[in-house]
């Protein structure tokens, strides 16, 4: 079964730290991988989308990497801020799946302490 | 630019009632989908559509119907509500360009309670 796993489920860090969130997935035949942010009681905001042919994507203080052979992706957040506190979700579309259909991990809840 | 709009934001239903959750997007995205989010289960795909007139089932379709008569709208119908359908429902859209998916956009969600 195709699954996405995110460990840890929760993470607390002091402001200013660099941090890494992990995502692992079964089956390396992915079509794309995406990182989302979800604030409490809100919808999902797309942060970074990595196509299958890409190794990484960057946006501001965020950098996401993809290693299909090991079934892993990481989201690196530089110089964390209290405003980064949210749940971060990893989602995968696999080859053979229909357009846009995503399998989500259960997320990592990040808390950045001032 | 409204993106993906979901209505209502909150709803309480009695067991056995039916209702329709509305979803509309103004980005001309061909792909639309419905997910439900439950504690400890994450987001799971209910139904999806790759274009007007085309719909298909996702991982958890039982108890739900969809139709796609226009590119903009993708309503989700609960036929006979059950307490197990208590959840937060999200509508999403995206588009394809040069063989790749782009532009994943989620609505703000509908929080449904079935009593």
Description of the molecule:
The complex is a heterodimer of chains A (114) and B (115). Chain A has 114 residues and is mainly β. Chain A has no helices and eleven strands. Chain A has strands at 4-5, 10-14, 19-25, 30-38, 44-51, 56-59, 62-67, 72-77, 86-94, 103-104, 108-113. In chain A, the strands form two sheets. In chain A, strands 2, 4, 5, 9, 10 and 11 form a six-stranded mixed β-sheet that branches. In chain A, strands 1-3-8-7-6 form a five-stranded antiparallel β-sheet, with no helix packed on it. Chain A is globular, with a radius of gyration of 14 Å. The N and C termini of chain A lie far apart (41 Å). The relative contact order of chain A is 0.34. The model of chain A has no long low-confidence stretch (mean pLDDT 95). Chain B is an all-beta fold. Chain B contains no helices and eleven strands. Chain B has strands spanning 4-7, 10-13, 19-25, 31-38, 42-51, 54-57, 64-66, 76-78, 87-97, 100-106, 110-114. In chain B, strands 2, 4, 5, 6, 9, 10 and 11 form a seven-stranded mixed β-sheet that branches. Chain B has a four-stranded antiparallel β-sheet with strand order 1-3-8-7, with no helix packed on it. In chain B, strand 4 and strand 5 form a beta hairpin. Chain B starts with a strand and ends with a strand. Classes of the chains: A mainly beta (114), B mainly beta (115).
